[in-house]
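Troubleshooting log. The previous run stalled partway through. Resubmitting the same two chains, unchanged.
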Amino acid sequence: MKTTVERRRVIRPRPAIALTVTALLTLAVAVYGLTSGDYPITPAGVVKTLVGLGDATDAYIVNELRLPRVAAALVVGAALGLSGALLQALVRNGLASPDVLGVTNGASVGALGTIVLIGGGSVAVAAGAAVGGIAIGVLLMLLSGRAQGNRLVLAGVAITAILSGVIGWLLTKAQLVDAARATLWLTGSLDGRGWDDVLPPAVALVLVLPVLVLYARPLAMLEMGDDSATALGVRVARTKALVMLSSVLLASFAAAAAGPVSFVALTAPHLARRASRATGPNLAASAVFGAALLVCADWAAQHLVPGRQLPVGAVTGLLGGGYLIWLLVMERRAGRL
Amino acid sequence: MSRPYEVMQSPPQVLAAPPPATATRHRTRRALGLAAAVLALAAVAALSLLLGARPLSLTEAWHGLTDPASGAYTVVHDMRLPRTVLGLLAGAALGLAGALAQALTRNPIAEPGLLGINAGASAAVVTCITFFGVQSLTGYVWFAFLGAGAVSCLVYLVGGGRGATPVRLALAGAAINAALFSYVSAAELLQTSALDRMRFWTVGSLADASMSTVVRVLPFIAAGTFLALRLARPLNALALGDDSATALGARPVATRVASMIAVTLLAGAATAACGPIAFVGLMVPHLVRSLTGPDLRWMLPYTIVLSPVVLLGSDILGRVVARPGEMLVGVVTAVVGGPVFLFFLLRRKVAAA
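Second attempt completed without errors. Output:
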């Protein structure tokens, strides 16, 4: 009695349209970001330069000075958005994100330890950040056996608080020059990013891609609960471990490139869900929204205070903190929290 | 809840029930415990005078305290004594603020540090140091109150007041902490001279204590403590729910407002004096509750005595482990207190809601 189950993938219009529109808008903002600066270039000029037809000055300014920064914003934003979406699907809690759970602070401790105690260049700092973030990720995986859902979130809050103590200690140990560098790093900044800074999060995105392809469906099924997922043939433990590892990798390498830019990972999946109205973890849309958020925030950080450049993390921190508070109020009204 | 309220045991037969012998024994035991706690406090305070970059013997310290001609006079009077007294005051203030916040929200994880109240005070102080150029404590203590008050109202409202679950409160606190952290570091980066001052202050330290600081925060902490002790009975009643509390003669709204004022005074004054110090207000009330039970009339005095023991103990630890330098007390409380909180979290069903 074998029935043929029709396995046609229906492409629903709304998520696809939302994804395309957002991606196009992001690109538009990115190109606009390339035009603005002390030496204005027209959008047409930027596009010409990008395809290799511009003059030498434009080419230098765009390709060497502005493009790395915009590319870093795109890649870091995508990595953060993806990391948040994975984590929220895994913990089954819309309030989870690498910064709330302490992964980002772990990366900060790693990076700061490198700046203050060892004093390495940007590669060493990035490596330190990755090591710190992954260490906290492993700790969370060990804890997640005993603490799940909300309790894991609370444990993350505690870990964050402990690590901020350590960060404070490292800051007071530092010379003033190092302290200024560390504070700038801690806020999260895309200032002066070169092509080698874009590399770590890009590598993380590529590394994580196979996990996404293979485990997106099992992850979606995990949202029904461990037991139902097991009954449906999902290898729960393996899926969880791989997804957690991917999320931590993405967040740590993003922090390695841009510092702990806060709240993008929390916000992007929410916006993605609102825009696409699709069920499931919404991975692709979250990545696109992460990139969009960071590109816009970085542009705002450069132009908000005239004559001064704010670090992008200050903008996302203030906006994202406000958003989280609003979200808490809304969740409470809806009786979900 | 062993002896909450006489009125609570309303059915007449129950009123007669507790054998007076047990009640007296409980009271004696608690009073003895309190005496022991005071002794511990005295011991820690003495150690705080003795230990440091240059350890003193007991006789040296005594001479330093009483005899202006002694070699240790400067060390004791200018450095260790103000530090110890400030540690006592700030510790008591932070512990009390934590105990009150926990009673007010009926929530085990409420604590000025985690809820962002200390961060509110420090953001306000950073604002006035960076943008208004205020340097003196008298100038910025009012800003600290303003910041602490604003954040405590915000976190109480966002967290959902009486119905707050631990997760909601913690996340509201985390959100506020993160937003304020971004603000503080942006302000520091805009002005590097402020960064050099602020990076020590934003960790929480007793090292710069002076007698003038002590004198300036004393009135606020005293007022907050007085208010807190007056609130023990009404808050006990509120633990039974608003309706029962009203029936027992407590005024829920007035009690809540007064508690918020007390928390603001205590946390704001402590933060203005030593910077944001986390986890003291969380650890000590939990420890005390396991000793005395949830009756605030005993809990609050115990907290007043034991919180400085923890704060000064952490300070001494910070002086001893990193000799000849020292580790700031805010770092020690975070590194020691955080794991205690984690342990507590994993052992009990805190986050059931």
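Takeaways: Chain B touches chain A through 56 residues (CB under 8 Å). Chain B has one domain: 6-352.
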